[in-house]
Amino acid sequence: MPEGHHLHRLALDLNRHFTGHDLQVSSPQGRFSASAAVVDGRRFTGAKAVGKHLFVGFEGEQWIHIHLGLIGGLGFGPPGPPVGVVRLRLATDEVAADLRGPQLCALITDTELAAVIARLGPDPLDPDADPSRAWRRIHASRRTVAGLLMDQQVISGVGNVYRAEVLFRQRVHPLREGRVIKQRTWQAVWDDLAALMPIGVVDDRIDTVRPEHTPEAMGRPPRVDDHGGEVYVYRRHGQPCLVCGSQVRKASLETRNLYWCGNCQRRS
């Protein structure tokens, strides 16, 4: 599932292509046709992302709420005949944005938008976000810190890659309970996410290794993985830790995979 940095990147791209335009809005697949007709021809007022949610705004206080889910994607190209199953097309005479396979695509109002955002935890990509909102829930919870970081009502936008990597970078064992995490540790986790995720927005990929652990610095081959990016532990189970050389571990938690170094991230 795309993490928050990718949704923020999509919002930037939508704003770059469509600001100042009246959009042609359609549903080639047909499932969104009635809602598309409501905003077809209206002025685009801006796109924004909150966590893993994307909102596309139109005059008249109308928004298209998109959640990509596990298989969804939004791509840009020339406004020719749609290719594949396209749930939503946003277009001008020069460019089209085609949405395929989303978990959610719904037309909502300003009031409904505010209600969606109110249910979400603070987003590290929002410079005005308050990390203490997440801390209060983490500090009171017996759930693992790994589980809490993936709970979008606790913190928005963090997925499996950023979870694994920020916990490694801050030397936090993923199965440690939230209630035993110190506030200074949580602040360090938040600050690290707030530094790493904007880089992901710019590059549209996740890189988390420090300069001394890049392939060039260590004289090692670049990582080869369809997820891309240079990382410490994510999907590196069975390989040596880039810091200490111990074997990277893997386990399952709440149907998702955990990755960590048992030496660098001690449970106690």
Strand portion: 15-25%
- Radius of gyration, in Å, reads 20 Å
The total count of strands amounts to 10
In total, the number of domains comes to 2
Q: Mean pLDDT, rounded to whole units? A: 96
Helix content: 25-40%
Summarize the structure.
The chain has 268 residues and is α+β, with helices and mostly antiparallel strands. The protein is built from eight helices and ten strands.
How are the secondary structure elements laid out?
Elements: H1 4-18, E1 24-26, H2 33-39, E2 44-50, E3 53-58, E4 62-67, E5 73-77, E6 88-91, E7 96-100, E8 104-109, H3 110-118, H4 131-139, H5 145-149, H6 160-169, H7 183-203, H8 215-218, E9 248-253, E10 256-261
Antiparallel strand pairs: 1-6, 2-3, 3-4, 4-8, 5-7, 6-7, 9-10
Helix pairs in contact: 1-7, 6-7
